[in-house]
Design a protein that fits this description.
By secondary structure, the chain is an alpha+beta fold. Helices cover 55% and strands 14% of the residues. It is built from six helices and four strands.
């Protein structure tokens, strides 16, 4: 009646993979926040100051903008490694976007390693049905177990709920 399926090696690693993915996609953000101030032009300060512009008079706004632009222009001619400070924010932004693309490729390879075929990682969008019907992460499956009853081994096949897969589904 049911097809016997071998144990999947990736089930116990799913929570760790999800944690690794979350942490790895946060790393480029941390790098951006750590290094964008090296250009002399503080992006976060400019954005927060622009929100307060409506509350100040035009003279105060002009003085603040002139002061920040003068300070940034004094800092821009000193190179950081091989990139001038005037190009550093753009270079850092493009580097972070490249890091995100490389992380996506890394995670696809990680899927291929654990699941066994790249069709799940890439072809899931081309799948005719829903991904829940693919059989890779079932929430309900059939379980076999044996019970000794009156010195006789009795086999039972029942429908089992996989709570770890249900948790991963909601994540």
């Amino acid at each position: 009646m049911f097809t016997r399926i071998i144990f999947k090696k990736y089930f116990q690693w799913v929570p760790f993979i999800l944690i690794l993915q979350a942490c790895s996609f946060y790393i480029p953000h941390l790098i951006w926040r750590s290094f964008n101030w090296l250009s002399g032009f503080q992006v976060k300060a400019v954005v927060s100051a622009s929100k307060e512009v409506e509350q100040q008079t035009n003279d105060e706004v002009t003085k603040i903008i002139a002061k920040s632009l003068f300070h940034a222009s004094q800092q821009q001619h000193q190179p950081i490694c091989f990139v001038h400070k005037q190009h550093f924010v753009g270079f850092l932004f493009l580097t972070m976007k490249l890091a995100y693309v490389l992380l996506i490729c890394f995670h696809l390879c990680l899927f291929k390693f654990f699941i066994g075929n790249i069709d799940f990682a890439i072809g899931i969008l081309d799948h005719k049905g829903e991904w829940r019907q693919s059989g890779h992460f079932p929430r309900v499956t059939v379980c076999d177990f044996n019970v000794y009853k009156y010195a006789q081994l009795t086999n039972f096949t029942v429908e089992c709920v996989l709570p770890l897969n249900m948790a991963c589904y909601f994540i």
